Amino acid sequence: MARIAQPLSFRAEATLLRWGVIASRSAKEAARTQGAALATEWLHRVGEQVKAREGDVHLTWACAKTLGMPRGPFQVWRRDRGDTLWRNPTHLSRWPAADGGQLLAWGQEAAAVRVTYRPLDPAAPSGLVVYRTAAGVVDTVGADIAAAGSGDPTTVEVHTSGATFGRLVNGTDPAVTIVSLADCVNDRSWELLEIVGLPLEPGWGSGYDEGPQGPVVSPMPPTDAALDRLQRGMPPIGWGPVTQTGRRAPIWEDADPEAVVKEILADLLPEIAALYDPGLPERQQHTLEFVRSVDPPTQDGRSASADTSATIRPWSMLALPAQTDPVLNLALGFGATYRIESADRPELSIGRSDLMVTARYERPGLLTGRGPVELAAYAPFAMRHDAVPPPTSLTASRSGLVAPRPADQPWRESITVRWDRLTSSAALGRVGAGALARVETAAPLTEPALALNPPRHGRGYRPLTLSPDGPATSPGAAKVTLVDAAAEIPIGSGGRSVEYAVSVVDIHGVWSPWRDVAYAGNEPAPMPPRLLSAKLDSRYEGSPSCPAELVLEAALDWTERIPTHLDLVAIFYPMATPSSAPPAGLDPGAPTPAGCFRRDLGLTFAGDVPSGSGCTVVCLTPDGDAVMAPGPGQGDGGRRYRLTAPVPTLDFATTQRWGAQIWLRSRLRVGASPTAYVPDPAHPARVVAASPVPVQPLPPPAPPGVPLGSTPDAQGCSHVRVRWSLPAGGAGVRTCVVWEVAETALRQRAGLGKPAETDSPGVRLAALWAAYDAMSPVAQRAAFRRILELPGTARDADITLPKGSTDIHLFTVTTQSMTGIESPWPGPAGSGHIHLQAAMAPRLRRPAPPLVRPEIGAGGATTLRLYAASSVPVARFLVFASRSEAAARDRESMGPAVLTIPVTATPVASDPVTNTPIYEANSTLTLTPSWEPWLLRAVAEPVDTVPVQAVRGVPSPASDIVSVTIPPTTPPDLEPLTAVRWSTDHRSVLVRTSTSAPVRTLAGGVGPHTIAARVTGIGGPGVVTVVPLAGLASLPQVDLTVAPAGPATPSGTTAVLERGTRAVGRTPLAVWFRLPAAADPAEVTLTLVDPSGRSTDQTLTVPPYVAPPAYTITIPRWTVRPTGVVVSIFTDAPRTLADGFSLRVRATSRGLLGRPVTITRTVPLAKIVRGRLYFATDGKIHIVRLAKVVPAGGPQYAAWVPLTGRFTVTASLLGADGAEVSASHRF
């Protein structure tokens, strides 16, 4: 049967252990610390042991869980290497490596690889690194390095347990030969060396092979073979003698081989027997598990009541110790030790031979089929192994606390020591266990540290298996931890100060140097008391100094420490606002600030029974809802107590609130005492007592009569303004409440009948006051209804009376303080009416529209006589004036009154129809003279109120419109004349003016304003042309910006007179005419005559037209480009927008068929952009104004013309009047 190699499932490793070198390294490491003498002594003691073990070869192997364990022992083989198996690979792939070098893949697993190559840099080392699955440190399975100057070509050779590709460093032109792993394990030169398996006794009762084990030349029972492996292969030394800080390490003891084997027989084999059940395939062994009931957790003599169980996994129970404990690796048959040379055991001397381990599987489940198969793991001659790296980034931290049980016992803590996890390689994982030691910091250096590893049976210590500190994807996966569990913290010791030392060990038994870390930890502070609730109550007893009571509930813990006293401090302080902070310096250990006072309370415990100091105390149930007897029945987690302390008085005369800040602390029977005051400053416990003293509003002043409400609003409702005042400015008032009762409602409650219609409001109010004072306080309050709540800062309120109400309405005000206390009902009852305010809706009375009688006197003075009939006295007349008919239609649009005439005389007559008095007044009004009539209207204003009758006067409607005309005393207004020539030939002239004279025909038979024109020069020099007088209304109203059209267009000796649209009180006028020649002057006179015959003349002389100077344009320079031409242009024309000049550039050429092609660009000079010219490719002409003119007076503009070949460029200057001047150049 051919052997099959599966390195991913079954692999082996052979390691050369030079124990003398290992011991020397350990001694040198210790000599660097203060323990040099201890290290020398230790090296001398172990010298003989390691000398005999200088050539140990430790062979170890492992099986993947998907493969399982064989049902019989492993077989160890040896052979001497030969050259008969080297072959060229069937397929070789090469490609550059990402991190340098060249990757070589030979397509199969190789046991040996030989590469001959040329070094790229002979002066640098070169070599070959081989891998199993991926190119990385983790998957490296072998390497060979050639020193610099090794020759050209250079050959390197690597032997490995199985490699599929490699990386050639600093080499080229490689020639590769390999020994395949299949050929290697099936080589006929292998010789059986030893049979290694579990140390079982006959009759174990499983499916495991119970045949002899041990060296082939001297077979022996399995237990004896295990003892033999332990005796010849157990590491001769253990961990180093001195820790990193020079302290003596725990005393090392070698394991007792017989005790180890006995322990396996008694404790392990019964648990793993099910692995070898004949009906269980090897590949399913790792799935086997069963649940077993175990004893529950026990602490301080108490056990958990819940059912507890453990899950047993036999595979892990066998594989884990076999691959982490160097002693159990040998004892369980997963490792064996040989020597290069051995005089006492020549059968186990292997020289420099390769080794191989084989195992037979019945149903392995591999790709080899379902039948039996023999698997082989190749281990080339041992690699030297002298040291294990020490732990790095070592830290120690508290991971758990165990509270005292029972109370007043020490605390215990668990300390986690954590360090960086070492990376495993594709060969067997090396570091898998370690040791943890502890020493007190104050202990002498010579005192051995205490090993925290569990002891083995017999002697020695078990290594602690290392595992990641978290799942693979968590941060803890990169760390390894060991735990010192339940270390006791002495009571009152100030804490523990210790050092922890860690050393790790690999499967070969080589220990790393110790690494130390300090740890200091104290017991937790005692649990302080807890303040569960607190309240401060005060009550009003007729004085601002009010008695108060402080009630609070506190809880004390009895589980960890037993209290003897509870101290309570309460500091009281005044508060200006509900959110006022306590005064600075408020602390139970500091002096009490000014304006505050302090109360010290407390409890004293006699066993479980408390007694109060300055307070009374009751014990409560755990949920605090009932009183109970003191003792454990209250619960140990927090026994609750209610404390009640009287506070003699709190003075609310100067403040609305008193606050109190509370602190608690406990004194204990053992441990740190007293506790710190709680709560801490960040979470203060405060209570507030609000003032119970009410605020009574002051009574309002007595009115002279019944105050009236406002004039009804748009909804017909009258409004009343209720006002009040409060003592001390209303400090401490949160809400003001307005109450109301109607006259009818109060009369019904008081038993009064309906008042007589002849009773005045004053008589009715007096009856209401008397009836209110006769009512009881309860009836008084019951009569009113609450109508409004306002903020405490309010001092008045607008109250809307019911629509159409004729009742007297009574109002009063109460308050609610900031502390929620309502003021008593205004009293005493016998004189309660002094706190009431009365008001009623007024009855409105309006005078009749007045009559206006004007009399015009000399100089425009007008005497007005005004009359109005009214049942309410008229106080004054208001006169309004306007010349606008539209404005006079409504008095409101006529502006403010121009005259106020008071009424001083009493009425002397009455209206014959209504029999109401007629009020009269007269006055003189001076109006501005104008041909437009003044329109007058008047309004009679009565007195505001007639209190006796509850009447409020309102202004009368406006009188009818009265027209008054006061002619001006001056000639009519005519603006000075202006002229402009408006045609291209400059012969046509427009003369403008304006006037404020009215255009329309005036009322009262007044004639119109007329105008005439006189023009000299239309028919020639000295010839006068006259436009006769015409009314302004008869002139055509036109747009004066355009010349007259049709028959009215001026021609020959004709002149046209027109008017424009009146605006802002003035009418524009114009005269149009044409002169025989542009160089002829003209003289124009306009005459405006008013209806009274007064006239105004305005004359203007129009000068001859003088032509402006001519402007020039030139093309002084040009530059020809491959795709066009740049033309420089000079002109002396101004470029302002008002001058209106434009620049036109036109280019003309002949097309393919001889037809002209023209492109043109015209731009106003004022809008040509200043900048640089770009040679655009859009086929258009582009024009710019040059940023810099060189030389001075040179061209100011440049144009880009996109034409080539023969063409003509013309630059033209265009004037606003159509004039044009051009310059051309032919290209």
Question: Mind explaining what this structure looks like?
Answer:
The longest helix has 16 residues, at 36-51. With 1227 residues, the chain is mostly beta strands. The two termini are 104 Å apart. Helices cover 9% and strands 41% of the residues. The strands form 18 sheets. A six-stranded mixed beta sheet has the order 1-19-18-4-11-12. It has eleven helices and 71 strands.
Query: What is the percentage of strand-forming residues?
Result: 35-45%
Structural class: mainly beta
Measure the end-to-end span: 104 Å
User: Kindly state the mean pLDDT as a whole number?
Assistant: 89
- Which value, in Å, is the CA radius of gyration? 61 Å
Helical content, roughly?
under 10%
How is the largest sheet built, in terms of strand order? 1-19-18-4-11-12
**Count of β-strands:** 71
Using brief descriptors, characterize the structure shown.
1227 residues, mainly beta, six-stranded mixed β-sheet, 9% helix, 41% strand, flat
Outline of the structure:
With 1227 residues, the chain is mainly beta.
Topology:
Layout: E1 3-5, E2 10-17, H1 19-31, H2 36-51, E3 56-63, E4 74-79, E5 93-96, E6 102-119, E7 126-131, E8 140-146, E9 154-169, E10 171-180, H3 181-185, E11 191-196, E12 214-215, H4 222-233, H5 257-272, E13 290-293, E14 298-299, E15 302-303, E16 309-312, H6 314-324, H7 326-331, E17 335-339, E18 354-361, E19 373-379, E20 383-384, E21 395-402, E22 411-420, E23 431-440, E24 450-451, E25 464-465, E26 479-489, E27 496-506, E28 515-521, E29 530-538, E30 545-556, E31 563-575, E32 597-606, E33 609-613, E34 616-620, E35 639-651, E36 657-668, E37 685-690, E38 719-723, E39 733-742, H8 743-750, H9 761-773, H10 777-783, E40 785-791, E41 796-800, E42 808-817, E43 837-840, E44 843-845, E45 851-856, E46 861-869, E47 874-882, H11 885-888, E48 899-902, E49 909-910, E50 917-926, E51 930-942, E52 945-946, E53 951-953, E54 962-966, E55 978-981, E56 988-995, E57 1010-1016, E58 1024-1031, E59 1055-1059, E60 1067-1074, E61 1082-1089, E62 1095-1102, E63 1113-1121, E64 1124-1131, E65 1142-1150, E66 1156-1164, E67 1170-1171, E68 1182-1186, E69 1197-1201, ...
Parallel strand pairs: 1-19, 2-20, 44-53, 67-68
Antiparallel strand pairs: 2-3, 3-17, 4-11, 4-18, 5-6, 6-9, 6-10, 7-8, 7-9, 11-12, 13-16, 14-15, 18-19, 21-22, 22-26, 23-24, 23-25, 23-27, 27-28, 29-30, 30-35, 31-32, 31-36, 32-33, 34-35, 36-37, 38-41, 39-40, 39-42, 42-43, 45-46, 46-50, 47-48, 47-51, 49-50, 51-54, 52-53, 55-56, 56-60, 57-58, ...
Helix pairs in contact: 1-2
